[in-house]
Backbone:
């Protein structure tokens, strides 16, 4: 049985959550070209200067297939390339300090020949060197000693310490945990939760969980619930089960042991930030429960948008009016949206529009306002969600915008990207959706003419369960 919002998560339509957060083939090829060039340079120069065999190995999110696009303008792609120095005889070896210094020196030397690198972080991080590129990504370079007879790997830390760490063993654990179909599902689940993290932890960086922490939690949660399903479950159903299982587990204990070395706790969130993490996880649990109880796709999509904000696609409708079961009157008539177009030169267009607009040139400013704002209920919150069309590898492009506030009845924005975008106004009272309206905006290059009319969207009514008044 398919979940109520399954097609919006992983469907074949123009927009899905997985397509919005997953890098395109072109973006992955660009990243691969860059890390291959740096890895080749390091293998050649470090082998020559150290007198030891040196290998590189791609690891982290790129290797696991869980890499996501940058969500905000300040976000970057994160690529991890391990640098492995091989020796057997301890008399031939190097100290952790020596390895880290050699790698940092060669990354700085490579920067002088690579115009795409903006800077190399100095001093380097405790567990890696980092090269930051101009096209919204960075490459982290953890450094290891590899002992081939024992097959052991240890991480060189900037402090001079060695840490037992085996990225290859962890990758093998992940690959062997599930069959191919379920493994692809788990990869998508990890991507969804990494996207959620990018949305809700933007202002709480100390509470932000690591990718490896999320990966292990998701894999183990799915392993504990997959017996409920015949075959591979729908993405939204699986995510509901996984989030509820994760919340239950972490409510009992914050410990997440590494599956390779049970002595290592993958939870690196500081104790004073743990409550901030759990508050956000509880809100996610509440949202997935509302999605689970939703009566149809649009209700489920709006519940999921509480967690994923502008990343979550919603069905292509002009407006949604909500009625309680057994009622013939809507909770709130869908408000109209008045729209004024300002040209790139700052001049106001000849006339304003209501609920829809013609195509606009890139650089145009839009002023949106809810008509008759006095009709909104007291303390109603208005959420403005802007879902942008596809984005490229470079530049400051973002996937969307979100503004929310009590009676936030106006929105101003400048259309800086070509494409068909969507602006949604969602009205809630006490957290419950009362109405929503969507406006399509086609942005064209200057001088370009619209080749075809936009599809006409329909107004729909949705039934919701009656809210009980508990005494």
Residues:
């Amino acid at each position: 049985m398919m979940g109520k919002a399954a097609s919006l998560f992983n469907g074949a339509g123009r927009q899905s959550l997985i397509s919005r957060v997953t890098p395109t083939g072109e973006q992955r090829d660009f990243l691969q070209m860059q890390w291959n060039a740096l890895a080749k340079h390091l293998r050649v120069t470090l082998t020559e200067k150290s007198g030891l065999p040196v290998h590189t190995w791609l690891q982290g999110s790129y290797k696991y297939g869980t890499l996501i696009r940058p969500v905000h303008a300040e976000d970057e792609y994160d690529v991890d390339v391990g640098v492995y120095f091989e020796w057997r005889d301890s008399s031939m070896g190097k100290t952790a300090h020596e390895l880290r210094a050699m790698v940092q020196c060669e990354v700085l030397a490579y920067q002088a020949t690579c115009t795409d690198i903006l800077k190399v972080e100095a001093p380097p991080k405790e567990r890696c060197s980092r090269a930051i590129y101009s096209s919204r990504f960075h490459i982290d370079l953890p450094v290891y000693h590899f002992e081939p007879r024992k097959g052991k790997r240890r991480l060189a830390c900037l402090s001079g310490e060695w840490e037992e760490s085996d990225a290859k063993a962890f990758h093998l654990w992940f690959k062997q945990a599930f069959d191919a179909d379920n493994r692809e599902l788990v990869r998508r689940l990890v991507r969804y939760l990494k996207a959620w993290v990018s949305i809700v932890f933007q202002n709480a960086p100390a509470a932000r969980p690591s990718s490896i922490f999320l990966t292990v939690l998701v894999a183990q949660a799915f392993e504990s619930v997959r017996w409920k399903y015949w075959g591979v479950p729908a993405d939204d159903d699986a995510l509901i089960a996984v989030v509820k299982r994760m919340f239950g587990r972490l409510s009992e204990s914050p410990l997440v042991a590494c599956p390779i070395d049970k002595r290592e706790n993958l939870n690196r969130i500081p104790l004073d930030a743990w409550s901030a993490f759990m508050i956000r996880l509880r809100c996610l649990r509440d949202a997935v429960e509302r999605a689970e109880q939703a009566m149809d796709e649009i209700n489920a999509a709006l519940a999921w948008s509480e967690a994923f904000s502008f990343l979550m696609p919603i069905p292509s409708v002009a407006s949604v009016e909500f009625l309680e079961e057994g009622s013939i009157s809507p909770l709130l008539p869908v408000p109209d949206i008045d729209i004024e177009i300002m040209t790139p030169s700052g001049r106001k267009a000849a006339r304003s529009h209501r609920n829809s607009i013609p195509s606009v040139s890139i650089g145009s400013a839009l002023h949106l306002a809810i008509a008759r704002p006095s009709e909104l209920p007291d303390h109603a919150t208005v959420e403005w969600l802007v879902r942008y069309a596809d984005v490229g590898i470079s530049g400051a492009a973002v996937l969307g915008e979100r503004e929310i506030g009590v009676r936030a009845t106006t929105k101003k924005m400048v259309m800086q990207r070509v494409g068909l975008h969507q602006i949604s106004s969602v009205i809630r009272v006490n957290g419950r959706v009362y109405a929503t309206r969507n406006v399509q905006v086609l942005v064209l290059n200057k001088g370009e003419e619209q080749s075809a009319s936009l599809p006409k969207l329909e107004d729909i009514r949705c039934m919701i369960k009656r809210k009980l008044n508990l005494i």
About this structure: The chain has three domains: 25-169, 178-304, 316-464. The mean pLDDT is 89. Residues 324 and 468 are 11 Å apart (CA to CA).
